[in-house]
Amino acid sequence: MKLSARLWLGECLLLLAGMGAGGIGSAYAQALPDSRSQEIQELRQQLVTLSKRLDQLTSSQPGPAPGKTPSPVQHAEAAAPATRAATAYAEAPAAASSTAAEASSPSWSSGMPSRVREFLTAIGNIEFYGDLNLSVDYASKGLKSSYVRPDGTVVSPSGNMGWQPDISSNLSYLGVRGNHKFGSAPLAFVFQLETQIDVSATAGTANSNSAQDSTVKGALTSRNSFIGLAAPAWGALKIGKTDAPYKTSTQRMNPFSGTPGDYAAIMGNTGGDNRVEFGTRLDHALWYESPSFSGLTFNALVSPGQNRGFENSTQASGESDCTGGNIPGSGGGPVACNDGSYGTAYSANVAFTRGPLYMTAAYELHRGVNRSGDVTNTPAAAASADGTDPSDVGNEWAAKIGAQYTFPTGTTISGIYEWLRRKIPSYLESQNERSRNGFWISLTQVITPKDIASLGWAHAGGTPGDPGQHNTAPADPNAIGIANPPNAANMFSLLYRHVVDKNLSIYANYALLINQANAHYALGAGGRSVTYDCHDGSSISAGAPLCYAGGRPMAVSVGLDYKF
Fold first, then answer.
1. Would you call 335 helix, strand, or coil by DSSP?
2. Contact at 8 Å (CB) between 229 and 188?
3. Among 16, 47, 62, residue at a domain's last position
């Protein structure tokens, strides 16, 4: 808890003591036995002493140096996942400021009741934090008025495919985290509870005509939440749910986080749309975070599948949704978790930091990913040359390497190269849109102590196949998909940020995503509250709409970001 919060608490306690000095408190004290009345008087005096000491601490806090403002780069890096601030014991106790240390020192708390000392020590090890990030956007899906399918038929998207104004909550969240030291060894119990805040919209399920998700993103502890044990010598062991190491390993290279131009539109996104399969939060997980060994760190996570269904075709035990983000049946018939549901997931990364240099390598594996909805009711899916089960269930994995370097000129260059693969039988390769390579390059320049500009380019390479479920269906009705389709994509993003102070900044973002004829990547992927995808605007009562490939989504966004 920050100093201002503790001062507010001290004022509340002093007010309570003041009530006891006259009026209700005094009358109540007189009705008590002498011993209890004396105890209340002593406690009142201790609270007065506490208030005076808090005033002294406040007056001794150094103010900001004249003309000094936080580095815009530092402000941008603060957008990284909040869990990094409590990853190890060495960082977690930092939440307890000098006030808590003073409160526990014998010279300051001598004679204070033990319950008061315990309470003050406990709140000194708790920190409230958050990020309020709202923007006004103007975006277009960039879709044509009509398309000619490979079989010659003409199809047309429904609804408004052009420019539309929006207000987005982006990645706003609130959280509380802290630690509790125990025993003689330097060991601590650490915890974090974090939730998304839908500031500009009412929280609810994420069901729309382009995505079916029964989870409530704005519910309590919907974001990274965990408990664990940590020590400076060996790191931290945690259990709960968190952004996977694969995701966090390169988050610092994404200055566009939460904006329409977030690199998650392509990086870690195997099939396009707004589900980022390898840039996600993993539920029911157990993970380890190492301390720094001369700049070298590593993290490893396992999320058990806990799925009793055949080929991961049901919801995981204890979860409200299919793994992968869609309700049963969203991938077509039969009703099952057949549109990306997977079993056990493994994620790990290793990183090295030395001065201005940062390097990392990461890997993540999803076992038994069920995409049988891609071949359901397709005549060719009924049999294969070798008679194997054409259920389209296979492992998917991702690997990437990244590097970042900051020059003395205030210029930061970042680069990532990524491999995405899906392991399925060869006869299904013509509908495999999940295996490809890609890269990300970004440049950030500090212009003034308060201004920063960033430029980013993400590229998705072509895949060996396309299920043909959109406006790209193969001309042959017996075909599972299209081999070697033109489905590469490029995204370009610009960002300008003005830092007002250490908490507040103003930013503007422009993003353009260029899809080839069979590609359908989307702007705003990665958790942003307003996204711009390939689906049309037909009524949900008419069923899930088609996703029209080949669009050129474009967005302009201006927002305010307040971190505390």
1. coil
2. yes
3. 62
